[in-house]
Amino acid sequence: MRQMIEQGIRQTESAPERFLKRLPPRVSEAFAALRTSVDTWDELHLRVGRYCSVTRRGETRRVPVTLTEQEMDALLHALCKGSLYAYRDSLTQGYLSIGEGIRVGVCGAAATDETGTQLLGLRRVDTLCVRFSHPLRSIGRTLVGDVRSAFPRGTLVYAPPGGGKTTLLRALATHLAGGERPLRVALIDTRGELDDGFFDKALSLSVLSHYPKGQGIEIATRTQDAQLIVCDEIGADEARAVLSVANSGVPILASAHAASVEDLLRRPPLRALCEAAVFGLYIGIERRPCGGESHYHLTEWAEMGEALCG
Question: What is the pTM of this model?
Answer without folding.
Answer: 0.76
